[in-house]
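pasting input
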Amino acid sequence: MKRSRNRSHLFSNKVILLAALAGMLLVGGVFFFYTQKERQEGTRLIQETLEIMRLQCLRYENLTVQQKAQNQVQLLEKAKELRRCLAQGETGEEFLKEYLEEQRLTGIVLMGSGEPDLRVSLDEGQEQNWTAILQDKNVLDVASQPKKNYVSRIQMEDGSLYDYAAIARKDQPGLILCYTQVEQSSDDENQIGIENILAAFHLQMDGIMLIADDTWILSSNENNLRGEAVEAYPLTQGYTERAEADTLGTAEMDGWKYMSCYSRWKGYTLYVFFPARAFFKTRSFAVAYAVILYILLLLGLVIIRQREAHHSNQMRMEFLRRMSHDIRTPVNGIRGMIRIGNRYPDDPETQRECREKIWEASGFLTDLVNDVLDMGRLEFQEVRLEKESFNLRSLVNNVYSVMEGQGTDRSVTLAIDRLEGTHWNLIGSPVHVRRILTNLISNAIKYNREGGKVLISCLEKEEAGSPDTAVFEFLCEDTGIGMSRDFQKRMFEQFTQEEAAGEQSHHGTGLGLAIVKSLVTEMKGTIRCQSERGQGTRFSVLLPFTVAPQEQGQVQKQEEQPPASTESLKGVTVLLVEDNELNMEIAEFILEEEGAFVQKAWNGREAVQIFERSEPGEIQVILMDIMMPVMDGEEAARVIRRLTRPDSRTVPIIAMTANAFEEDVQTARNAGMNAHVPKPIDVELLKKVIYENLYPETHNG
Amino acid sequence: VTVSSESAIATLSDLEGKRVAVMSSTKPESLFLEQADDQIPDVKEVYCFENMELAFAALQAGYVDAVAGHEPVICQYMETAAGEYRLLDEELLSVDVGIAFLKDGDGKLEETLEAVLSDMEEDGTLEFILSSYGISMQDIHGGDGQ
């Protein structure tokens, strides 16, 4: 029980580890998936935003270029108008000044052949510059190219901007140069233009867009950022140096992380920033959901496990309670009966009754111990299926004859319904088959009503896969109390026993069906059950066996031998080896009652000495306890087998021990013993085993 | 030469008596002004701007009827500048590009350039660069020289 608890504890640790791992994988997977997804989506969003900004810049650029082109073409038109006036005879400085004012020009230069330039202008001090411009080939060319309309813009040393236009004169060879100062304020207007191009945008997730030149933030959808220095704003500060253009990066401001990207467009740098928490919003939600879901799942599992543990604890408590009850009841009976017997020492009738009841109670105790041991072995998977040849028909008959008595005791009729099949000689584990049948039949008898019936059948199925295999179906039908549907679900669990109201009289450990189920599973068979409360129960067990290659008479005979009661031990000399005084007395009594001569040895060494001193063939059989002081039974058996005597190898040694486990039987065999009889001693079985080993030739035919 | 997509001008000769915008000091400017070739139409006026941007702006605003310039440059502007444009099928002039070196140089620079250029052609860099200007390798190999 302790071992099983340890194991379940270990198992639960493993489960916890696995669950934690699965949880981490789940959350990690969700995190990773959404990171990828949102990163992709975010990158797309950023690229789209940058594209919009580029488009806005382009529009703005086009607008300024158009404005400039318009101004310059107008300037050309003014120059052409002047050319027309000159061609019509207008001349002189006065006229030029007038024209200058009319057309809002800043200055006019007339160059003719053979005469000095005529210059009028509103701004003084730029003469030098204009003289230089007049040396320019592009300008000078105009004089000889009547079709050429030359226009350009120049920035003077003092920073002032001028548009100037040059065309050929028509009144005489030469050229006309008109110029006008470009108002810096018009540039400011343009600046306002670029500032406004992002103002109307409201980005989702509170994104920030910026257009900057090398030093200043020119435009942004956040009004207050305009005009700020690039290096003064935390997000843009040093950003272009540490990050590559057109790739997703990160920036930080006020402790918040931003997903970001920048792109160059002509002379501008375009920036986009999105708060990372908004960027990965879905991810956060998804991860949170995953965690919550996972925790709920875990909680569910834990609750289920707790319930299971609770249930299994309850079962254990129930088992202990029942065991305590089931042991107490017969012990109480035994002690009570002895007390009664003591009170009436001279009343043989009471004495007999007491002994009978004591016998019955101790029988039940034996059953209980057997069941508990078997279940324990099954639980630790220590069942060893054997590969022995046996006759199934005989086995069923044998079980029937053993169980019939039990049925009669309870006024239940047990009958074999059908035995149909061809391959009765099989190889398998007869001990366990017997156990299955016994348990099922025993239940059918136990949970029956007075005058009820139990029918058993054993049918060979035809659908065996190969010729070496035979599948048999065992049927056990009863007209008993049946089982409720609810109980049928749990009927194979250990320590379960249906207790219908007012039916406390069924003695059982609640292990019978659990043992059957485990054994059937172990033997790769199946078990099915039909039951109706108050109608009865029908169990069907399908078991596969290997067909024995040749009919082995020995086995068959063994099962079909005459009833043991006809055997007698009259005149047989038995060496009884036993260290426990009470057991010695009981065994001696049984053997002497059967007519045997008994020699007693109190330990293994004594047994060896007695055997050595005896005449060869004098001691016909040795009954050997296993656990003894000085020398144990196995060692004694080994020593006896090594003695140089004619009978040292032939004398039957039968182990007689409370160590009833399968492996104890095996170690006894290995030590050179012939057979094994468990305690408490079943007289019939003991007689049968001794008889078999004394006269093997009778059984081998 | 490119015109507004709605313009009636279809051939070079349609440019007769029209206004053409060019970038100052470029080949198209001198072609139109000097009219050395019969093929070159007698345009009314040649507007010389600082850059192609302004020339296109003038075309868009309708100040001029056509813009003349180097084809790759024009193609680029046609893509980015506002308004719809159409390139005339005829060309003013087809030219080969050359690189000039100092007359009394040692020729090493020439060799290096030659090597780099052939490298660029082999590894596809040249093709990549050209394709970004809308020129295929056939276009440059079709001429007299490379």
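fyi Chain B has six helices and five strands.
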